[in-house]
Amino acid sequence: MRDFGGIVERSPVRVVRPRSAGEVARAVREAAAQGLDVVPRGLGHSTYGQSLTAGVSIDLRELTGVEVGPRHAVAAAGTRWRDVLAATLPHGLAPPVLTDYLDVTVGGTLSAGGVGGTSHVHGVQAENVLALDVVVDGEPVVCSPAVRPGLFDAVRAGLGRHGVITRATLPLVPAPERVLCCTIPCRDAEDVLRVQREVPADDVSAQVKPSEDGDGWIYEVKAVRHGDGAEPPPGTTETEKLPFFDFCDRMRPDVEELIGLGEWARPHPWATVFLPAARAAEVIEATLAELTTATLGLSGVILIKALRVGHVPMLDVPDDPVLFSVLRTASPGCAPVADMLAANRVLLDRARAVGGTRYAVDSVPS
Q: Does residue 234 share a domain with residue 165?
């Protein structure tokens, strides 16, 4: 069995596919009686074997369903975020934070942290939870900020180590019908961080792309404003109006193309670090100075995202964090996986030297 990273392989003793919290609890009790580790798994979008085990794999993809109330939704852990959004949008509502890629599960991203374009306003997805149903020591329990708060803090961004999330109660906010997507070119990483700090936007992120001559990098901020009457911020060179769902699902056409090209199935030695904002630009620029198309991969992506992170004790981030992701793909003719992993280690060491931390679902060799 492999995860999305395609680097680590493990064969579980048993795979359980529960359809209820009771079936999850039974599987956990049986594994404990046999002395086996239990690892919950959604769509396996981790990149270095974090969702794999040699013990019992609890595949939660059949534990699905969404109930929508006036201010919240209750979603089973195996539900994809696209299905949550499909259930809430008819009510004019949406979760405050959505992942850029909707085909990951509620339980999976809450167990990892979950960063989205609105995380500069609302924080990570693990902050935006009202209550969780969790199986702990073979028993289903409910936790929230007021009920079993220690467990609530342990399972959010806890990678399934302290309990198996089976259901989440999520807050909802009004959703716009349309959005205005604005492209703002930037000079360098420092300029990207300045724009992300200064430009008011409902959703903001940045990409770094190779220049046409391959001899440098192009920096672009994507600032998104909600509503039909939204105006582009200063510095915008390109705009696009989209229905809100189409914007949220913007990665689907690209993923379908990558699947057709075979790139989606290749190893993905992804590296993501959280950097203190005051030192982020220097780490980003030093990394880009060493990076080439061969060490990034043909479909590799580089992201920069300023965040606001509140109370998520299991998510290790510096103060005033900036997310920096080098999402490598081991494409044919590019650097081998081992070289990409070694470069990830260099990035992590560089990040830690300035007070940065690692996002726990990335690919860094021990």
A: no
pLDDT score, position 112? 96
Domain extent for 41: 14-59
Rounded-to-5 percentages of helix, strand, coil across the chain: 30, 30, 40
Is residue 206 domain-shared with residue 353, that is, in the same domain?
Answer: yes
Q: Are residues 118 and 159 in the same domain?
A: yes
The pair of structure tokens assigned to 203 is 């959703």
> Are 159 and 186 in the same domain?
no
Q: How far is CA 313 from CA 62, 147, 318, in A?
A: 29, 17, 12
* 213-254 per-position pLDDT tens digit: 777 899 999 999 998 888 999 999 999 999 999 999 999 999
Please count the CA atoms within 13 angstroms of the CA of 131 that sit on its side-chain side.
Answer: 11
Gap between the terminal Cα atoms of the chain: 20
CB 94 within 8 A of CB 75: no
187 shares a domain with 88: no
335 and 225 co-located in one domain: yes
| Per-residue pLDDT tens over the stretch 283-294 | 999 999 999 999
d(CA 124, CA 204): 14
pTM of the model: 0.95
Structure tokens at 164: 């198996």
- How many Å apart are CA 40 and CA 61, to the nearest integer? 10
